[in-house]
Design a protein that fits this description.
two-stranded antiparallel sheet, elongated, 3-stranded antiparallel sheet, about 50% helix, alpha+beta, 5 helices, Multidrug-efflux Transporter Regulator, Chain: A, Domain 2
Length: about 140
């Protein structure tokens, strides 16, 4: 599921403005590493405002996105699932579901049972993939 998608910028003025914003933010982050980016916006029908502070990690991600856009790249943000079904794990690893089931039964992939589903953590799938790649290289 895509959260946000932005086609690449092609307008030179937009590219320049985005590049300038990224550079200014990056420079400010170097001087103030704990910088919190904030937004102030109207709070409903009243004249009150609400402030929203973003932590430094999110500010850095924002700078990274601006950099990519300034380079003419398209940007897409998506949800990274922390747990996957056997089918999703098979797709992630590029193998069959039956191989995933076999690896679970052999104890090579840890899982958690939820109802009748076996859920594999993304971290576990990455470890499994990395181990298989190392084995192929003979490490």
């Amino acid at each position: 599921m895509k959260l946000a998608e932005m086609d690449r910028l092609t307008d030179r003025l937009q590219l320049a403005a985005v590049a300038d914003a990224a550079e200014r933010l990056r420079h400010t982050l170097v001087q103030h590493p704990d910088l919190r980016l904030g937004f102030i916006f109207p709070d409903g029908a009243s004249s009150a405002t609400t402030e929203l502070d973003l932590p430094p990690m999110v500010v850095q991600m924002f700078v990274d996105v601006l950099d990519l856009l300034a380079q003419g790249q398209a940007v897409s943000l998506s949800v990274k699932k922390l747990e996957m079904t056997t089918e999703e794990t098979a797709s992630f690893l590029g193998v069959s579901r039956s191989l995933i089931r076999q690896e679970i039964e052999r104890g090579r992939l840890k899982f958690r049972k939820t109802g009748n589903r076996r859920m594999i953590s993304r971290d576990e799938a990455v470890l499994y993939r990395d181990e298989k790649q190392r084995a192929l290289k003979g490490e």
